[in-house]
Amino acid sequence: MDHRRCLKSHTPMDGLPLNDHAQYICVFRHPIDAHFSYRKHLRNMQMHFFNLWYPEEDTEGVTFRRFLDGGPEGFDGDAMPLAHILRHYSAALALADRPNVALFHYADMCRDLPGTFERVAALLGASYGADVMARLVEAAGFDHMKANAARYAPGGGTGFMKSDADFFDSGTSGKWRGGLSEDEIAKYNAVIEAHLGPEERAWLEFGTPQ
């Protein structure tokens, strides 16, 4: 293949080969938002053994404890524990000064999707007219993707998920607020504060300061 192509990976940057001809786009989201989104994602898959790890009713808070306690490799119950997210983040930060490594945040995309497209286009050296960019931004919007879920959801149209449309739940953040106890929040804060400084934490949770 002699044309541009893309590859999506869940591998941290320190596990990927670095090539000056490649552009690395690292995307992050508030860890707790990512966790609760992941719960819904797995319950929507046709793999019922995930119900043991992510039960619909979890009155004892086992799932969130696994999220906090799991190791970075994700083999001990939670496939995406907090330690795994922090490993991704630290590996990306270590290479963020390279011209071909860029960090993006979901909150920034939600606040300014056109600006995100402009940034990606600049990184890739791509140039499009205003009308084409407007169509691309519209296609990447939540409503359009949910309405065309069979095209955009992972494995869409194949029965991989119970509902392709449900993969696009709401696109919002912070719905977990009020759903965790003070003790759970305190334990999350302790883990985060042990690994990140205030500025690093603020960006990982909320994106670029406004």
Automatic annotation (TrEMBL):
Question: Molecular function terms in GO for this entry?
Answer: aryl sulfotransferase activity
Q: Where is each Sulfotransferase domain found? A: 1-196
Entry coiled-coil feature ranges: none
Task: Enumerate the UniProt keywords alphabetically.
Answer: Transferase
Identify the InterPro entries for this entry. Answer: P-loop_NTPase (IPR027417), Sulfotransferase_dom (IPR000863)
The Enzyme Commission number assigned here is: 2.8.2.1
Source species, domain of life: Bacteria
Give any Pfam family that matches. Sulfotransfer_1
Report the enzyme's class at the first EC level. Answer: transferase
What PANTHER family does this protein's entry cite?
SULFOTRANSFERASE SULT
The entry assigns this protein to a family as follows: Belongs to the sulfotransferase 1 family.
Record-given protein name: Aryl sulfotransferase
